[in-house]
């Protein structure tokens, strides 16, 4: 499962960007939170996530916090 750092987060739209460990920015939206129990993120938090779909239309799903 890939990991990264929350680079930006908008609490209203529940969307933002993850900077993965290869320095690629990956956008996420509120669908990434579905069934995770997470309510929000802080910039700089480490997360694990899954990518679904084929590039270049991959989407982030199943975000989980690695560090608080």
Short description:
This protein is mostly beta strands and 68 residues long. The protein has one domain (3-65): OB fold (Dihydrolipoamide Acetyltransferase, E2P), CATH 2.40.50.140. It is built from no helices and 5 strands.
Tell me the name of the CATH homologous superfamily: Nucleic acid-binding proteins
Briefly note the structural class of the backbone. mainly beta
Percent helix range: under 10%
Write down the secondary-structure element order.
EEEEE
Mean pLDDT: 90
Query: Any idea what the radius of gyration is?
Result: 11 Å
Q: Summarize the biggest pleated sheet.
A: 5 strands, antiparallel
Supply the number of structural domains. 1
Percentage of β-strand residues: over 45%
CATH topology: OB fold (Dihydrolipoamide Acetyltransferase, E2P)
